[in-house]
């Protein structure tokens, strides 16, 4: 890994989240010095805010640089970044602005700034405008984060009128609206708005003279569809590849049918250079923000925030994979704040699938999956001494072959709600929240939009995962943006039907010789095969079930081949001395010193100790004071899966969702450790992981990694 890459990976992206306090409709500050540049600035720089919108609830941040030649007569340019919705800082440093960034020395906290001898400010006055609501621009309410091409154009026109009122000496200067890329859509709209305003007699009259656009987007389908012929014309594609792609795709490279595998395999993906991340470093240094007079605003709560993590307490050195943590606000008012861990694929993040992992419960944290099942790290029990459990790389992590998002369910882990009602959820609301999460997350991570998306999980997620996939497909069909490239779903030992699944446990116990033939046949006869909805007056049935419970009470229901353990006694003060290692098992097993029986559930206490450590929470950029970490939202649970105050079990069976999804060209992998199933009419793959327990990747990590890798490749398991 190069120093450049290491430096980039250490970037911490901070996002403004605002709680409204009254501000003037516009404010400006003259900036005479900037961190990273020695001495006073040799040009006039102004920064400020202008409020626009019907209620002035969108606040636009700008940088203004006076012409270094003749500001009184030189043209006035307003620069619109592409995106849509991008900060103008990239243009300020890398395109037409007065500075360039020195990024050859990665040891400095703040990159050095150099003058750009080819800046357009040498001959024009330039306003660099942060689009709503990017950069340092923001909105005062969640509703006003919603934007469009026409609304953005109106906001920019309003900005110009207010800005020129505050800067009347520039009203007579020739005005040009300028930009690149996606601004090819919005700039003509802005110019039209300006002309319309002038013709309507709006004041001040703006001296609009023209517009300039570089490599503009003008028509989405035409422009994107011509990229492959263009790449061939300038010798970026071989004749063979171009002709193959042209033939397989029939000249249509945008609206490609999901079943056209030959076309999809020919299409090449392009990843953008990451040197622009230096602007994020510079822009988020506190001294820079102070110099630019950025408002230190208390958040009404982030709709989205993220942090790149390069090291973790307990792990020696830098992490050998890319880890990001963050929050995504979901719900009508973003009242639910979902915390996530995201690990990029260690193989090929550009092409490998992206998984979102839904922990069971319902309402459990992703931490057990992250450490004990399929995540990139595991605990080093043997070398854990004292304070923070030590961490090792997991050679069988699913992140070896896929990018994985681990989400803490609402009210668990580090996820929280801003209101009491925000903690109330259900099977369907949970699924809608995850769909909303995915849309926001992928909007902020557009490079993963084309990756195959799979929704995955185990246990209770057998109810919610199919609903999530159903919601995604329904949203795609309704034209929701962004369109999610959903390919299928994977569930381990899933709950699919509360009655059928729980009722089949007695038959299962008999199949595995946990119940005698006599007791099984007696129970079956007395209860008429229904062991859930039992009439209390049926004494023969209740008596038989009491015998069954007596036979099974000491079994570990998560893995019948391992001892049963009491998982209710979570360590309040963790100490390495309470654990010892048994290396003969082939895996690291925790064993309480005062017991001769090791308990797998004791291993989870290390995860609890790690997650509740203050240094860990600081490293993960957890919002302090929002919630106390919890493994699961215990308010959701009630014996028998009855509704609680915070959770409505409103989908008793997911079978109908499975059936409907088989008609949607949606792949499914359902893996367990019991028996195999198949049906010629279904695109469902059933797999047995022999010798595994309830969470198969925890018990058989090597086998499960091989299984998912083969399934992604659509090869025989």
UniProtKB/TrEMBL annotation:
InterPro entries: AB_hydrolase_fold, Peptidase_S10, Ser_caboxypep_his_AS. PANTHER family: SERINE CARBOXYPEPTIDASE-LIKE 7 ISOFORM X1, SERINE PROTEASE FAMILY S10 SERINE CARBOXYPEPTIDASE. Keywords: Carboxypeptidase, Glycoprotein, Hydrolase, Protease, Signal. Belongs to the peptidase S10 family. PROSITE patterns: CARBOXYPEPT_SER_HIS. It comes from Daucus carota subsp. sativus. Pfam families: Peptidase_S10. It comes from the Eukaryota. GO terms for biological process: proteolysis; secondary metabolic process. GO terms for molecular function: acyltransferase activity, transferring groups other than amino-acyl groups; serine-type carboxypeptidase activity. Residues 1-27 form the signal peptide. The keyword Transport does not apply. This is Uncharacterized protein.
């Amino acid at each position: 890994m190069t120093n450049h890459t290491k430096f980039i990976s250490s970037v911490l992206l901070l996002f403004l989240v605002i709680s409204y306090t009254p501000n003037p409709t516009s404010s400006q500050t003259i900036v005479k010095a900037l961190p990273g540049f020695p001495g006073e600035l040799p040009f006039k720089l102004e920064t400020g805010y202008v409020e626009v919108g019907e209620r002035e609830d969108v606040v636009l941040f700008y940088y203004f640089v006076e012409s270094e030649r003749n500001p009184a007569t030189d043209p006035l340019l307003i620069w619109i970044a592409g995106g849509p919705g991008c900060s103008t800082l990239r243009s300020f440093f890398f395109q037409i602005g007065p500075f360039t960034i020195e990024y050859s020395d990665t040891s400095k906290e703040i990159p050095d700034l150099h003058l750009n001898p080819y800046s357009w400010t040498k001959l024009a006055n330039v306003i660099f405008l942060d689009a709503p609501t990017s950069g340092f621009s923001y909105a005062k309410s969640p509703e006003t984060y919603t934007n469009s091409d026409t609304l953005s154009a109106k906001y920019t026109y309003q900005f110009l009128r207010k800005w020129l009122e505050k800067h009347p000496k520039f009203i007579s200067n020739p005005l040009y609206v300028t930009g690149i890329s996606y601004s090819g859509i919005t700039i003509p709209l802005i110019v039209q708005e300006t002309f319309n305003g002038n013709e309507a007699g709006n004041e001040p009259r703006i001296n609009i003279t023209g517009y300039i656009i570089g490599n503009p987007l003008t028509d989405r389908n035409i422009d994107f569809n011509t990229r492959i012929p263009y790449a061939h014309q300038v010798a970026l594609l071989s004749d063979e590849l171009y002709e193959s792609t042209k033939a397989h795709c029939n000249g249509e490279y945008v609206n490609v049918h999901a079943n056209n595998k030959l076309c999809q395999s020919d299409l090449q993906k392009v990843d953008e250079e990451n040197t622009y991340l230096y602007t994020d470093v510079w822009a988020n240094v506190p001294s820079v923000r102070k110099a630019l007079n950025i408002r230190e605003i208390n958040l009404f709560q982030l709709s989205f925030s993220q942090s790149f993590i390069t090291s973790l307490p307990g792990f020696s050195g830098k992490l050998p994979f890319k880890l990001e943590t963050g929050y995504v606000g979901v719900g009508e008012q973003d009242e639910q704040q979902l915390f996530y861990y995201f690990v990029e694929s260690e193989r090929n993040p550009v092409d490998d699938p992206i998984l979102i992992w839904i922990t069971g419960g319902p309402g459990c944290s992703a931490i057990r999956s992250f450490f004990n099942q399929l995540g990139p790290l595991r605990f080093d029990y043997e070398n854990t001494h004292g304070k923070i459990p030590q961490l090792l790389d997991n050679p069988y992590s699913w992140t070896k072959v896929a990018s994985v998002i681990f989400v803490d369910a609402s009210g668990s882990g580090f996820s929280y709600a801003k209101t009491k009602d925000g903690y109330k959820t259900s099977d369907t609301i949970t699924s809608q929240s995850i769909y909303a999460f995915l849309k926001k997350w992928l909007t902020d991570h557009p490079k993963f939009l084309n990756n195959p998306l799979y929704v995955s999980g185990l246990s209770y997620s057998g109810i919610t995962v199919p609903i999530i996939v159903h919601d995604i497909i329904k949203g795609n069909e309704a034209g929701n943006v962004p369109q999610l490239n959903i390919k299928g779903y994977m569930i381990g030992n899933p709950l699919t039907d509360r009655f059928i699944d729980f009722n089949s446990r007695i038959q299962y116990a008999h199949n595995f010789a946990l119940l005698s033939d006599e007791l099984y046949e007696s129970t079956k006869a007395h209860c008429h095969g229904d062991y859930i909805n039992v009439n209390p007056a049926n004494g023969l049935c209740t008596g038989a079930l009491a015998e069954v419970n007596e036979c099974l009470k000491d079994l570990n229901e998560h893995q019948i081949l391992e001892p049963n353990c009491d998982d209710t006694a979570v360590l309040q003060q963790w100490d390495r001395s309470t654990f010892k290692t048994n290396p003969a098992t082939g895996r690291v097993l925790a064993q309480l010193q005062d017991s001769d029986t090791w308990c797998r559930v004791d291993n989870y206490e290390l995860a609890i100790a790690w997650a509740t450590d203050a240094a860990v929470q600081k490293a993960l950029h957890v919002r302090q004071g929002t919630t106390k970490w919890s493994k699961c939202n215990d308010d959701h649970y009630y014996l028998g899966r009855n509704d609680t105050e915070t959770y409505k079990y409103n989908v008793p069976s997911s079978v109908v969702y499975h059936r409907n999804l088989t008609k949607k060209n949606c792949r499914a992998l359902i893996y367990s450790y019991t028996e195999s199933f198949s049906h010629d009419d279904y695109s469902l793959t059933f797999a047995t992981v022999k010798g595994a327990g309830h969470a198969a990747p925890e018990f058989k990590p090597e086998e499960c990694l091989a299984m998912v890798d083969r399934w992604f490749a659509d090869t025989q398991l």
